[in-house]
Design brief:
It contains 16 helices and 8 strands. The protein is α+β, with helices and mostly antiparallel strands. The protein has 2 domains: about 50 residues, no CATH class; about 325 residues, Cytochrome-c3 Hydrogenase, chain B. The strands form 3 sheets. Strands 1-2-3 form a 3-stranded antiparallel beta sheet. A 3-stranded antiparallel beta sheet has the order 6-7-8. A two-stranded antiparallel ribbon has the order 4-5. A hairpin with a 7-residue loop joins strand 7 and strand 8. About 40% of the residues are buried.
Length: about 400
């Protein structure tokens, strides 16, 4: 039936747009469509945080994506400028609340480099150990939450069981569950509690033994594979263009890891233990798989650090510093391989007790920046799978 017969008026009559007149194929293929703008977020189950995506849709297919950030912006970089170097640490460990120790580490490494401080060897190995334990905690969160976003409820309980095992030894050491505040300029807050190395070794062994439960539950699941294999392919070219780093970049075949390529802490002595996990497909499944394999590598590094510390004689874990800490005039850039990717700290000092500028390069911001190039052409349900596989923390985007 023609449109004229349905509407009851002829083409060009009042109330009828001639642009809608089509030849009578009857299949609707010639009907005009209009792009629709859909806001995902800032508070939406698919965004796991106050991130807003402004999607332009052609039917159910995404034609364009604009990430709109800043809903959690707390002005951390400006707050750094009015805090002394000891106070900065407590602010810096919060932008990625899943990687607090790694966030602290970047700040103190930058300050120590500017001051020419040599940290005690025991503190160097302890920092390496704690950085890897923090990496395991971060990855376990996403290993549990990502399947949850795709409809799988059970894995999050397995992941949190392992998180609590690691969380227990970190809480015993630092007194904090998420914001450890254990790094200090020149070392660490204090030495280990008696017997802590043994309890940490037991925790590592327990997590390693039970990790196959998560692997078997998810990787072989046909629904999980259908939602992730071949979905959201990120090319190495896009990785380079947007500065994507960490497990997301390595899942696209980019063989880069600062722990190996520009060793810091004790990673230079752990080259025979450290394996850089890569995969070439660059899809959602590959990103999840790399994250899971990196947990195994981090547990290997944890065990190697525990062996080293167990054979090391007792000694200091920090150096004495003046009550008022001033950094010599100058500038430096320190970067670390944080759990979600490269975190960089550009420190500029004018010789005062507060930094003149401390610029933070966070991994999540760059990783999310690739979405406008990654999402167009995909379907709305796939957007949820892709977004979750980018493994970001909103505070790390907004700072």
């Amino acid at each position: 039936m023609s449109i004229e017969k349905v509407v009851g008026v002829g083409a060009g009559a009042a109330g009828f747009d001639p642009a809608f007149e089509r030849g009578g194929t009857g299949d609707g293929s010639q009907l005009p469509t209009t792009d629709m703008v859909l806001n995902i977020g800032p508070q939406h189950p698919a965004t796991h945080g106050v991130l807003r995506l402004r999607l332009t849709l052609d039917g159910e297919r995404i034609a364009g994506c604009e990430p709109i950030v800043g809903y959690m912006h707390r002005g951390a970089e400006k707050l750094f400028e009015v805090r002394d170097y000891r106070q900065i640490i407590v602010l810096a460990n919060r932008h990625d609340w899943l990687s607090a120790f790694a966030n602290e580490l970047g700040v103190v490494l930058a300050v120590e480099r500017m001051m020419g401080l040599e940290v005690p060897v025991r503190a160097v190995w302890l920092r390496t150990l704690l950085a890897e334990l923090n990496r395991v905690l971060n990855h376990l969160m996403f290993l549990g939450s990502y399947p949850l976003e795709l409809g799988a409820i059970t894995p999050v309980f397995y992941a949190f069981r392992e998180r609590e095992t690691i969380q227990g030894v970190l809480e015993e050491l630092s007194g904090g569950r998420m914001h450890y505040m254990f790094n200090r300029v020149g070392g660490l807050k204090e030495d280990l509690p008696h017997g802590w190395l043994g309890r940490t070794a037991a925790a590592s062994a327990a997590v390693r033994k039970r990790l196959p439960d998560i692997e078997n539950l998810i990787l072989g699941n046909e629904i999980f594979r259908a939602r992730t294999v071949g979905i959201g392919k990120l090319s190495p070219e896009l990785v380079a263009q947007y500065g994507v780093s960490g497990p997301i970049a390595r899942a696209s075949g980019v063989d880069a890891d600062l722990r190996r390529d520009e060793p810091y802490l004790a990673y230079g002595e752990l080259h025979d233990v450290l394996r850089v996990i890569t995969r070439n497909d660059g899809d959602c499944f590959s990103r999840f798989w790399v994250l899971l394999e990196q947990v195994k590598v981090s547990l290997d590094l944890v065990d190697a650090c525990l062996d080293k510390l167990s054979s090391m004689p007792a000694g200091p874990v920090n150096v004495r510093l003046p009550k008022i800490l001033k950094v010599p005039e100058g500038q430096t850039y320190a970067w670390t391989e944080s759990p979600l990717g490269i975190n960089g700290y550009y420190l500029v000092s004018r010789g005062d007790k507060t930094p003149w500028r401390l610029k933070l390069r966070s991994a999540s911001f760059n990783n999310i920046s690739a979405l406008p190039a990654l999402l167009p052409g995909t379907m709305i349900p796939d957007m949820i799978a892709i977004l979750g596989s980018m493994f970001f923390v909103v505070g790390d985007i907004d700072k």
